[in-house]
Design brief:
78 residues, 33% helix
Length: 78
């Protein structure tokens, strides 16, 4: 079991909130548990689910231009 804390920072855009929302919405198509917070999104699942979720978020966000993403991954129970 893995958990990840993910924060997306769109660059050079006036639509940062929309970029973040669209990126997070990709998780609804995955078999992964997630909770959206004010500054980050917490993802829980098995290794493949979490890594796939992280990739989907980044791929969607980068479709809008330059983006930075900060990820903290842990295999400890929360």
């Amino acid at each position: 079991m893995l958990c990840a804390e993910v924060s997306i920072y769109p660059q050079k855009t006036n639509n940062a909130s929309q970029v973040i929302t669209n990126a997070i919405q990709t998780l609804s198509q995955e078999n992964v548990e997630y909770k959206v917070g004010s500054l980050s999104t917490h993802i829980d699942g098995n290794d493949e689910q979490v890594w796939t979720g992280i990739k989907k978020i980044f791929t969607e966000a980068q479709n809008s231009g330059e983006v930075s993403m900060v990820v903290t991954i842990s295999n400890s129970a929360h």
